[in-house]
Design goal:
Two copies of one chain form a homodimer. By secondary structure, the first copy, chain A, is of the alpha/beta class. The first copy, chain A, is built from eleven helices and eight strands. β2 of chain A pairs antiparallel with β2 of chain B, so a sheet runs across the interface.
């Protein structure tokens, strides 16, 4: 189904729900980071926020139901609704990036590319960088491979630390226990700081929810994968080198 | 197009974009107010966040383009995506409520009903209640009629106060100037408090964005139309008296 010309224009699709607070917060940050002086200057976006997608970390470890059909269901709905690019505010979901991209003609903005661009924009172009993420994202080397290829040295938590500094706060966010999550995450950021990193990447979209901007008091950048992806989406939206939207594209 | 059974289930449609930060914040509050212990316990929702809808207050005063075709375009997309009820986190949009409801078989949750239910749940069942909203919402008597019918006395700002306490902070929110918006709104809440109201209704969904929970320091309830509508949506989702979802419904 095609939109009439009256409603045509560039439209961002957001495959959210993984988790749902990260999906909602991504749209919130997208709005707040967009230069705008009225509603009509903001970015048209549609958020598919289906939280029933089976858990990504368990599935990656072959211990749970396959989330891919649920992700593709969301992408199909975003396509039908008229999205022209897709942002996925879930890092672990990017372990299925190639499979998702193979099923859609829409460009999917890669969250790791967005984080590395944000790191560079923060003035950090090489050296030691800390990473906190789900056990699955860490085990997959998703970030480590890309960081190494871009000249960084990636510092990750020890295996017993992943549970305390990553798995625990992520689970607490999904229970809406944001203060408890902050308490669990903070020692992890502090410890990586003590290990001489120049920045810490919050490489799971639940982690920024546990550490609001106002509480990031370290003298180093905290690279937030929600904000990084929102900045990439804004860059896509305002990229005048792309063909203007046409319903027949 | 029907979903396969695997993906069937109750799904909330959110007609947002009016403004975009209110749409995103509504989904955020929906998640945070839902009792849940994992992603999969949260409410499946789809947010149509198209901020290009022509300004509602101007259109109501016959000074601008008609927003209704844009609202119906959003509703049509939400229907196609599988929504089974619609929440609209914009009070002024409810001046077109009957026209929207006439165009869809899905129930639209009325924001004024949600606010009155929230007022009752706060223990306020009659007496003087303050209202801050757009000039159009105030002029339409949307809230005043419903409040009077429910036994309340509605206290609204004088005409010169509407600009300072409502129009100005709403415009500042749409520019992402939340601190400035708070500065403009606060004297309005304080003044209504001084006029002996038992509660103040933030009857425009931009206003709660200017007055975060932590800054509501008055000894009276502030009834927030975003949270009230989110609570109504949660009640709808968990209402076991409704027929279970079936794609053939």
């Amino acid at each position: 189904m095609q939109d009439s010309n009256q409603f045509a224009g560039r439209f961002l699709g957001v495959l959210g729900g993984m988790g749902p607070l990260a999906g909602a917060t991504f749209v919130n940050r997208l709005v707040l980071l967009t230069p705008a002086t009225s509603d009509q200057h903001h970015i048209p976006a549609i958020l598919w926020n289906d939280p029933r997608v089976p858990g990504r970390p368990a599935a990656f470890l072959h211990q749970g139901e396959d989330p891919l059909p649920w992700m593709l269901n969301g992408i199909r709905h975003l396509e039908q609704a008229g999205a022209q690019a897709i942002a996925i505010p879930c890092n672990t979901a990017h372990l299925w990036f190639d499979a998702m991209q193979a099923h859609t003609r829409l460009p999917i903005l890669h969250i790791v590319d967005a984080v590395i661009a944000n790191l560079r924009d923060s003035g950090i172009t090489d050296g030691r960088v800390g990473l906190l993420a789900t056990g699955a994202t860490l085990a997959s080397q998703l970030y480590q491979t890309a960081l190494t290829a871009n000249g960084y040295e990636c510092v990750v938590p020890e295996s017993d630390e992943i549970e305390r500094w990553c798995t625990a706060p992520i689970g607490l966010v999904k229970e809406n226990r944001l203060d408890d999550a902050q308490e669990a995450l903070t020692p992890g950021v502090a410890a990586l700081h003590g290990r001489g990193v120049q920045a810490v990447i919050l490489g799971c979209t639940e982690l920024p929810l546990a550490l609001p901007l106002a509480r990031r008091t370290w003298d180093m950048p905290i690279v937030d994968s929600i904000d990084a992806l929102a900045r990439a989406a804004i860059a896509w939206y305002f990229d005048s080198s792309l063909a203007p939207y046409s319903p027949s594209n």
